[in-house]
Specification:
The chain has 20 helices and no strands. The protein is an all-alpha fold. Helix 3 crosses helix 6.
C-alpha cells in the first residue's frame, strides 16, 4: 500500500468514517490499530522494531519519571539540610544516568546496527526507522529532564511512536504536543476537512506532478557523473534541488493533510528553504524538526558540558570575544556530522555533514569581519541587493553540498567538480541529450510536462506569498462561496490528475532513512 494510492485513500477514508462515528469514544484505539496495520502492510515483520523501541523507551521513561516524582517528594521532607538536598539530587542524577546510558545503548545501538548492515551488506532499513527512533528518544529525554510527566499507558505511547501518516518521513513530533492531542476527543469539523484537502492536494502537486516527473532526469545525470560535462552537472543539480524539495516537502504536506483529517496539527517541516540568506538559516527552514531535535538534545547539552565551559574560558582568554563562540563552532561540526550519518551511511553523507558544519562554523567566525566589510562599502543590512546576493550565495553552497550527496563515490568528487570549470559545455548539448532520453521522450508526455510547469509555477507563487507572511489557505477561506468552490474543484482535479504521474517516479526519498 503506497502512501498515495487508491488503497491508501480507501484506508484513510474508512478510518475517518469510523473515527467520527462508531469509534468516536475510542478514537485513539482505532488510530493505534490503524497505524500498526499500516506499518505491517508496508514494513512487514519490521513492525517488531517499532514495538520494541517504543517499549524500551516507555519503560525507561516510566522508571525515570517515578524517580523524578520520588525526588520531588523527598526534598520536601522537613528537617533536610542544604547538604541533604544536594545529596538527594546527586543520588537521583546517578540513578537516572544509569537508565540514560542503557537507553542510548539499546535505542541508538539498534539504529547503528541497522545502518551498518545497510552500508556493508545492503540490508534494507526498516521504513522510517530514523524518524521514529528520534521521536521516541525525544520523549525519553524530555521525561529525563522532568519537562513533563511520563505517560502511564504504554498503548497510548505506542500510538505516538507509530502514528501512521508520519511513519514514512516525519516530521519528528514531540510528545507534549502530539501526545496531548491523542488524549483529546476530536469532534468532526468541516473546516478541518477543507484544510486537510488543501494541504494534501498541494503535497500531491509537488510530489507527483513535479518530483516524480523530474526523478528520471536527476538519475540520468548522476548515475555516471564522471562522464558528464560542467553544464550538465550544474543544470542537473538545480533540477535535483527542485526534485528533492518537492519530494520531501510534498510528502510532509500530505502527512499534515492526513493528520488534519483526524483533527491533529503537526509541526511543518519546511519554511521556504531556498529563500535562506545563510546556510544556518537554511537549516532553520529545511527539515525543521530534525534541526530542533539536534539543537535541544545534542547542541545545548553539549554546550554546557565541563569541557565546553573550559573551552569558553580558554578561548575568551586567548582570542577575546571571538573565543566565546568556539563551543558553538565545535557543536555545529558535531551536530552536522550526526545529521550526515542520520541521512545515510556512505562516506559522501559523512563528508556532506562535515561540509555543512564547517561552513556554518566558519561563517559564524567571520560574521564580525563581514559586518566591518559592509560598513566600509556602505552597504546596509536592509539592502535589497545584499539580500538577493545572500540568497544566491547560500543556494550555491546548498548546490555544492548536494553534489557531494549525489556523487556516491567520494573519490570521484574532485573530478566531477573540476568538470564544472574544465568541461563547461555552454551549448548544453549534453544536457539536451539527457532530456531527450528522460523528460522529453516521444511517448505522449506533453501533458505531463505542461502540467509539471503549471504545478511548479503554483509552488513558486505559494512560496513567495508565504515568504511575505501571507497565509494562502487563510486567504482562500476569506473568499466568497463561489471562489472557494472553484478553488476546491481545482484542488480535487489536481489530486485526481496526480494519479497520472504515479508510475513516472517512485516512493518518497526520505522513507529510506
Amino acid at each position: 500500500m503506497q502512501f498515495y494510492s487508491v488503497q491508501f485513500l480507501a484506508f484513510v477514508l474508512m478510518l475517518v468514517v469510523l473515527y467520527y462515528t462508531v469509534c468516536s469514544r475510542i478514537q485513539w484505539v482505532l488510530l493505534l490499530a490503524g497505524s500498526l496495520t499500516f506499518y505491517y502492510v508496508l514494513g512487514g515483520t519490521y513492525i517488531w522494531v517499532v514495538i520494541a523501541l517504543s517499549f524500551v523507551t516507555w519503560i525507561a521513561s516510566f522508571i525515570t519519571g517515578r524517580m523524578n516524582a520520588k525526588y520531588r517528594l523527598d526534598k520536601k521532607k522537613e528537617g533536610l539540610t542544604r547538604d541533604d538536598k544536594k545529596a538527594l539530587k546527586a543520588a537521583l542524577a546517578g540513578r537516572k544516568r544509569v537508565v540514560l546510558v542503557a537507553v542510548v545503548i539499546l535505542v541508538i545501538g539498534n539504529l547503528v546496527v541497522f545502518k551498518v548492515q545497510n552500508f556493508t551488506n545492503g540490508l534494507l532499513l526498516p521504513i522510517g526507522i530514523s524518524f521514529y527512533t528520534f521521536q521516541v528518544l525525544s520523549y525519553y529525554f524530555d521525561v529525563y529532564m522532568d519537562k513533563y510527566e511520563y505517560e502511564p499507558n504504554y498503548l497510548r505511547f505506542l500510538l505516538f511512536a507509530s502514528w501512521f501518516p508520519q511513519m514514512i518521513q516525519g516530521p519528528i513530533s514531540r510528545y507534549d504536543s502530539l501526545g496531548a492531542q491523542f488524549r483529546t476527543r476530536q469532534p468532526f469539523k468541516f473546516d478541518n476537512i477543507k484544510h486537510a484537502l488543501f494541504l494534501f492536494a498541494m503535497g500531491a502537486l509537488k510530489k507527483y506532478a513535479i518530483a516524480d516527473v523530474l526523478i528520471q532526469t536527476v538519475t540520468a545525470v548522476f548515475d555516471d557523473p564522471l562522464e558528464k560535462g560542467g553544464s550538465t552537472i550544474i543544470v542537473g543539480i538545480i533540477v535535483c534541488l527542485i526534485q528533492l524539495y518537492c519530494d520531501f516537502s510534498g510528502g510532509i504536506d500530505m502527512v499534515l493533510g492526513v493528520s488534519k483529517l483526524f483533527g491533529f496539527d503537526l509541526k511543518d517541516n519546511f519554511r521556504q528553504p531556498y529563500f535562506s540568506t545563510t546556510l544556518a538559516d537554511f537549516w532553520h527552514r529545511w527539515h525543521i524538526t530534525l534541526g530542533d531535535w539536534m539543537r535541544d538534545y545534542i547542541f545545548y547539552p553539549l554546550a554546557v558540558t565541563k569541557p565546553m565551559l573550559n573551552i569558553v574560558k580558554w578561548g575568551t582568554k586567548t582570542f577575546g570575544k571571538t573565543g566565546r563562540i568556539l563551543p558553538a563552532v565545535i557543536g555545529n561540526i558535531v551536530v552536522f556530522f550526526l545529521v550526515g550519518v542520520w541521512h545515510g551511511t556512505g562516506w559522501n553523507y559523512v563528508l556532506w555533514g562535515f561540509y555543512n558544519g564547517i561552513l556554518i562554523s566558519v561563517s559564524e567566525l567571520l560574521k564580525p569581519a563581514f559586518g566591518r566589510l559592509n560598513g566600509v562599502l556602505h552597504i546596509g543590512d536592509k539592502s535589497k541587493g545584499l539580500y538577493v546576493w545572500r540568497i544566491i550565495r547560500t543556494n550555491i553552497f546548498i548546490a555544492l553540498g548536494e553534489i557531494i550527496v549525489m556523487v556516491a563515490d567520494v573519490a570521484e568528487l574532485p573530478t566531477v567538480l573540476s568538470h564544472i570549470f574544465t568541461r563547461p559545455d555552454f551549448g548544453f548539448g549534453e544536457f539536451s541529450g539527457v532530456l531527450e532520453k528522460t523528460l522529453l521522450k516521444p511517448d505522449g508526455r506533453i501533458f505531463i510536462i505542461v502540467f509539471m510547469f503549471v504545478a511548479l509555477a503554483i509552488v513558486i507563487v505559494r512560496s513567495v506569498v508565504k515568504e511575505r507572511g501571507v497565509d494562502l489557505y487563510g486567504w482562500v477561506c476569506r473568499r466568497n462561496f463561489v471562489v472557494q468552490s472553484i478553488i476546491l474543484c481545482f484542488l480535487i482535479f489536481t489530486m485526481l490528475s496526480a494519479f497520472i504521474f504515479q508510475n513516472v517516479g517512485g516512493g518518497f526519498l526520505y522513507a529510506n532513512f
